[in-house]
Amino acid sequence: GTHVHVDSAARGAAMSDAEAFADAAAIKAAGFDLVRTAHYPPTRAFLAAAEELGLALWVDLPWYRGGLGADARRWARGAEGALAELLDQNGNSPACLVVGVANEPAMTWHSSFRDVAKLPRVDEAKVAKVVQGFANRVRADAYRLAGLRAFDAGRALMDVYSPSVWAGWYTGSYADYGARWRKERAAHGRSRSALWHVEWGAAAVPGEFRRGRFRRDGATWSTASVRGAARSLDAWTESYQADLAEWHLRFQQTDEQWAGGAHWLWRDVPSPQRCANAGAAKCLNAKGLHARSG
Q1: Cα angle at 259 between 257 and 262, to 5 degrees?
Q2: Strand 197-198 to strand 160-162: parallel, antiparallel, or no bridges (unpaired)?
Q3: pLDDT at res. 115
Q4: Nearest by Cα to 181 from 246, 241, 240, 252
Q5: Residue 148's beta-bridge partner residues?
Q6: Which pTM does this prediction carry?
Q7: Which residues of the chain have pLDDT under 70?
């Protein structure tokens, strides 16, 4: 699978229905069968396109980091209302396979919040209780699966769970991917949930193929020894992005216990958190298989 945001280079978040259908059709033509609409529900146009084209959707509730917020009661009212709307709009769709109840709910790092210091310390037990309640609401319809990403305390409460593994990008080398995934599978044990891997990949400056920094052993090109590539803009090339993807896919296609997953992401999207990026990747989440312009 892959991931999409509601965004086009021409219209931003006001993308047209025709653009939404074109995205879905291109994703289907590329051979994908699962799309995660991260980190919020799809537009009605994209949902209809997925139904028509036969794409399965992982539809996300927009609970992205921050625990239960600075005011837990106010947060709960908003989150419960958002889940009710999500299920009302998407729950009866044959394309809606997974409803993701949260993404990284216990994390507070990065610039996701104006003042992280004002957030109360995340109580993982309280977060897990809310996650379980949301999952039970999703499973009120036996044909829907409850999903969760990057919250280990909730993995046993789900139908589908994905840990956070960014081998070769934020941490380690992509050559470590198989070993790291086997470690995750061992930690998962006999949990009731299926273990998927959603969100993996590497960023690239569109059109950049500079590889000299990673040349070794004479004429042999190898990037497998590069570690934590996100910290070095020299690694932000389409060459490195493709090498990392190939390594991940080879493992996934040959691992006999592989259940499923989704690459991050279909197309580059705007991201104010990433305005420190250089050149053509400035203010973009540049991990897309396509540049923002297509």
Answers
A1: 135
A2: unpaired
A3: 59
A4: 252
A5: 161
A6: 0.92
A7: 109-119, 210-222, 233-234, 278-280
User: What is the distance between the alpha carbons of residues 245 and 289, in angstroms, rounded to a whole number?
Assistant: 10
Question: In this structure, which amino acid lies at residue 107?
Answer: M
Condensed to tens digits (0 to 9), the pLDDT of residues 166-211 reads 999 999 989 999 999 999 999 999 888 999 999 999 999 888 876 5
Which residue type sits at 56? A
